[in-house]
TrEMBL record:
Location(s) in or outside the cell: Nucleus
Coiled coil: 82-151
Gene Ontology BP terms: positive regulation of transcription by RNA polymerase II
Molecular-function GO terms, alphabetical: DNA-binding transcription factor activity; protein dimerization activity; RNA polymerase II transcription regulatory region sequence-specific DNA binding
InterPro entries named among the record's database cross-references: MADS-box/MEF2_TF, MEF2-like_N, TF_Kbox, TF_MADSbox, TF_MADSbox_sf
Name of the molecule in the record: MADS-box domain-containing protein
Entries under PANTHER family matching the protein: SERUM RESPONSE FACTOR HOMOLOG
Major site of localization recorded for this protein: nucleus
SUPFAM superfamilies in the cross-refs: SRF-like
SMART domains: MADS
Domain MADS-box: 7-67
K-box domain segment(s): 94-187
Domain of life: Eukaryota
């Protein structure tokens, strides 16, 4: 019979070796292997490496390619540059947040003034052109409100028609009110004109 294959290395338990002699032997072997791998990596891949190992007794083992001193200097320069960039980024972010807060405060102040102007307060702070522009905007808003009221009222009347009102006057009375409102320059009929229709509408629906 041929010689069988030998068993491969078993899985190593990654925990501290209790036996001091075995721990020392393992350190010596693995330290040499790590330094060898570092040298191979620097040659094969043309990279700069700095490796430090301190033994349990405090002894230093090091490897540097091309040298430990040069790589340490380069490392410090990179770290300083990264810290500087990080500080600049943080300062820029803080300044941006402050600017956003200032803009938000200005917007709130503007909206508060705008609200007062729309209800006729604090008008002394506006000049003639601003007052004229405000008046035009309020007139446009009033027309839109009136148009929306008319549409909703008409839709309500149409719904009464579809439900089959008992008396024709129940439907016609509100329509006449709408027509009277349209004819009125200010967009509102007088109470004396609306009251009879309201009473008739109430009696017809009751």
């Amino acid at each position: 019979m041929g010689r069988g294959r030998g068993r491969g290395r078993g899985q190593v338990n990654m925990r501290r070796i209790v036996n001091p002699i075995q721990r020392k032997v393992t350190f010596s072997k693995r330290k040499g292997g790590l330094l060898k791998k570092a040298r191979e990596l620097s040659v094969l891949c043309d990279v700069e490496i700095a490796l430090f190992i301190f033994s349990p007794t405090g002894k230093l083992y090091e490897f540097g390619s091309p040298s430990v001193k040069r790589n340490l200097g380069r490392y410090q320069e990179v770290c300083a540059s990264m810290e500087e960039c990080s500080d600049k980024f943080q300062n820029t972010e803080v300044e941006l947040l402050q600017l956003q807060a200032e803009n938000m405060e200005k917007m709130m102040t503007y909206l508060e003034r705008r609200k007062k102007h729309m209800i006729g307060e604090d008008l002394e702070s506006l000049n003639y052109k601003e007052l004229q522009r405000l008046e035009q905007q309020m007139e446009l808003g009033s027309k839109r409100i009136h148009s929306t009221k008319k549409r909703l009222f008409t839709e309500h009347i149409e719904s009464l028609k579809s439900e089959g009102a008992k008396e024709k006057y129940v439907v016609e009375a509100p329509i006449k009110i709408v027509e009277r409102v349209e004819q009125d320059r200010d967009g509102d009929a007088t109470p004396e004109e609306i009251l009879p229709y309201q009473k008739s509408l109430h009696l017809s629906l009751s």
